[in-house]
């Protein structure tokens, strides 16, 4: 229920803001607005102050909205109101009205990112676990416990890495742009600084998806390989393991972090049996060797070993927040970065350099909306800002049924001095609808595939 309500709230906010941009600009340009609708289909709620004023309605199907303006192409217009018709307005006014919707979404994103930055979020600290062996991160020299402090931008400037989420963003951006990324690292205590360069240019944009960091080999946020609660009667207790034991190695192989320890435990399976392991642990400053015989469990047709104990200490979090003006700058910068990245990804998907699996639809949006609401207000505002940028960018694409398509019509009119003919307009609209249906179908397919674990 939370997911559904969060999704409906997200869609309602974005639609209202988008259509409000069209509405306010239309009024500013002297165009009479007949109806402001949130949703399509049967009217559920209606309000109109006077018979001559704008009618505001909420309809049954909430996946969209529209602003209906007085227009001689859509019906008869009384001569006394002809000067308020949309089609009678100069080209500049019509273009401003059309562009105001996407612009409102981008302005909203700036505001939302700024407010989220002012509130602050608790995010994983950019202290990394052990990289995957022989991966890009491993070859670059990254090690367990490395604390990523900064990244180098293309112009040579450095930008502070405040959290693991920041690191994910700059790695993704560099991969999409096909360039290497230099990171400034220290140890977990902030000492021994050094630089490493990730050779991301060799990956290609098709690698950009939810599993990008795993492909690069960057580990999860660092968690010390220390045992938490040991379940009575389980394999860990029978082996003599205790809460607070720090695991040094398993079968002679060093254990650097909790992620590697969990992986080593789960993989201790040979055929239909769990494999005993020789653990070396540190307890009270002394090292000791213990034989651990895990138990074998099966879930969803897969077998793995388990020791019945909590593995790893909680990862460290940091509060990321911004001051009043710093938050505004952050909002503008992040909106620009997300918009630019979205456009570049769409372009690369179009020419086949990026996977169409990156297209997301309503199911993914609903899922993330529900998750972000449960995490807290600042997380939800950040998610809402991200979707608002995406909506603004999408509507500016030069597809006939979108705002960007109408702007292309006006560009043609401005260059040639005449509008597009009705015949061509009809053809372009039909083509635009076909393209949008294909995109929506792909996005919905990707949503379903993600939920079924096919992607």
From TrEMBL:
- Which coarse location class describes where this protein primarily resides? membrane
PROSITE patterns xref list: PDZ
List the Pfam families hit by this protein, alphabetically: PDZ_6, Peptidase_M50
This protein's membrane topology, according to the annotation, is: Multi-pass membrane protein
**A GO term for molecular function:** metallopeptidase activity
- Cofactor requirements of the protein: Zn(2+)
- Note the InterPro entries from the entry: PDZ, PDZ_6, PDZ_sf, Pept_M50_Zn, Peptidase_M50
Top EC class, one word? hydrolase
Cell location = Membrane
UniProt-listed Enzyme Commission number(s): 3.4.24.-
Residue stretches spanning the membrane: 95-116, 377-397, 428-445
Using the record's annotation, list all stretches that form the PDZ domain: 195-255
* Similarity comment: family membership: Belongs to the peptidase M50B family.
Name under which the protein is recorded = Zinc metalloprotease
What is the organism field in this record? Caldimonas mangrovi
Organismal lineage: Bacteria, Pseudomonadati, Pseudomonadota, Betaproteobacteria, Burkholderiales
Whichever gene encodes this chain, its name is rseP
